[in-house]
Structures are given as C-alpha cells and as structure tokens.
Amino acid sequence: MTINFGQTIRQIRLAKGITQPEIYAGVMSRSFYSEFEHNRHHIRVDQFIALLKNLNVDISEFLFIANHYDFDDENELTQLVNDLYNERNISALLPLSEKYRHDRSRNIRFVAMRAYLLFYGTGNNQNLYSLEPLTELITFMRETDVDGWTLFELQLADNYFMTIENENEFAKLFWAVDRQYLKFHALDSKIITQHATHYFNTVQNILLRHFSKTLLEQVMKHSQELFQNDSNAEVQITLKATLLYTNLYIDYQNTQSEAYEFYRALQTINYPNIRSLLLVHQTQMNNIKHPFYNTHGQLTNFVNHPSKTASEILAQIKTERP
C-alpha cells in the first residue's frame, strides 16, 4: 500500500474542521506544513506522531483512512482466517493457506502459515501436519530474541508454540513470552485480553501434547494470579474457558455440565467467539480419549482454582455494555 501521508493528514484535518495552525503549532513551521500536506516534503517520525496526536487519531486509524477506509491485504487475510476459524469453517483454512503461502509479503506468508496450523491443530486433523511449510516461520522465531519482540512477534508466538515438541523448550519460551507481554500491558487493555488468550492457547497445547502436570499447574496458577481480578469481561470469559478445558481431564462428568451452562449463557448474549470455544471444547473431548489418558488416567489431585460462575460473568458483561 502506497501512503500519501500529507494528503491523508489534510483529509482528516478538513473532515474534522480543524485549521492548519491547530495541527502544526509547536511541531513545524506553517510553510513547511503546507508543503507537507501537498506531499512535497517528508517529515520526521516524531513530527508525524505529534500531528496524529493533534488530530486525535492513532496510527492504525490513520492507516485505515489512508487505505480508503479499508484494511490492507494482511489485515484482510488475518480477519478472514479469524472468521473462518470462529465460524468453525475449518476445511476452508487449508486452501487459503496454500493460496498465500508463497506471497511476496512475509507477513502474509506468516498469516497463511497460521491458517495451516489452525487447520491441522483442530479436531481430527491433529498431529497430521508437516513442519516443512512452516520452515520460514520457525527459523524467524528461533533467530529473534524474545526480549526484542513486539506485538507482531507475540501474536505469532501462539502459532509457533504448536510446532514445539520438547517440553523444556516449550516452557522456557512460554515464560519468556509471558514476561514480554507484561511490558505491553499499559499500552492497551486489548493487550491484556490477548495475553489471556495466550494462556488459553498454551493450556490447550500442554494438554494436546501431553506435557507434564507440573507445567500445567504452574501455567494455570500464574494465569489466576494475573487475571483473576481483572475487570475485563472478555478476560474473565477466556480464563473461565481455560479452566473448564483443564477440568475436563479431572472431573469429566461435572465439568461437562458446567461447560454446558457456561456456553448456553454466552449464547444468550450472542458472544461472537462461542463457535470457536465449542470447537476447542470438542478438540479437548477427542483428546481425552487418547491412549495416553487411557494409560495414565485423568489429571488427579490437580489444584482446582476458583473462578467466576457464568452468572457472575454475564452480570459483569451487562455492566460493561451501554
């Protein structure tokens, strides 16, 4: 996407009815700003950020407007992958992955790899995939320092975790990613929701890969410490779902009843991700029948952490909605 920075700033300014001096004051001269609006000057990053601040527009909104009030190709593909997964249209993910796996854009190739992993990591497709189409993603993640990861790499991490078979390597990376997420909590409440989802996905991976009960307990305990008192209803839903999936391996009969009540409650409020939660639930149900659990039994003596009931979460959602 080619961005006309000055022209887009001018478009937003005029639409808001803001004068030029209100935008450039304290940032640059009148003449320089006038030239910038007509794309005849480039400006520094700090000046650009200051202009956005004066317009009360963030960078994602600016890029959306610059792209004619539309998402760029990467965001569109990401949204499509999310929609297909949430709608349980899993069969459509593989051809989508094949279509974009050789795209010129690395980021789009990475989204295609995510679609590939979601297809093979769901339901009856588990453990049937090859790592060969994921070589670029695996190499990229292994060769970059977690301490330098931004939100882009953190979002990729859940996909990368699906490729790790060694428990020690998995655990070491998990705690490094967790520390990195904490650095971004103050940026946006959505980051905390994304972090909670990371725990949700991590627990799925631990259960599906039959990693140790010790690691599972450590992850679950830390998730409770981080999110138990969070006021965001989305975080509480994710936390509750994580606990339910774990408890399927401890007290199958009672957890099934509790899960049914929980999903039914979410359906009454038209919770948008209910289909994907049900899909993960079915995946875990299939995993409980795995020979590993037939041989070793269910996860006994696991600490059953307290969590909010479905009614409490619904009450919280009602207070958040206008």
Sequence of secondary-structure elements = HHHHHHHHHHHHHHHHHH
Strand content: under 5%
- From the alpha-carbon coordinates, what is the Rg to the nearest angstrom? 23 Å
Mean pLDDT: 82
Number of helices: 18
Give the CA-based shape: globular
Low-confidence stretches: none
Largest sheet: none
Distance between the termini: 36 Å
Helix content: 55-70%
Tally of DSSP β-strands: 0
**Helix/strand/pairing category:** mainly alpha
What does this structure look like?
The chain is an all-alpha fold and 322 residues long. Among the domains are: 5-66, Orthogonal Bundle (434 Repressor (Amino-terminal Domain)), CATH 1.10.260; 182-320, no CATH class. Helices cover 67% and strands 0% of the residues. The chain contains 18 helices and no strands. The protein has helices at 5-16, 20-24, 30-37, 45-55, 59-66, 73-86, 93-100, 106-120, 135-143, 151-161, 167-183, 189-208, 213-227, 233-247, 252-268, 274-288, 291-296, 310-320. Helix 7 runs antiparallel to helix 8 (106-120), helix 14 packs antiparallel against helix 15 and helix 14 (233-247) runs antiparallel to helix 18 (310-320). It is globular, with a radius of gyration of 23 Å. 25% of the residues are buried. The mean pLDDT is 82.
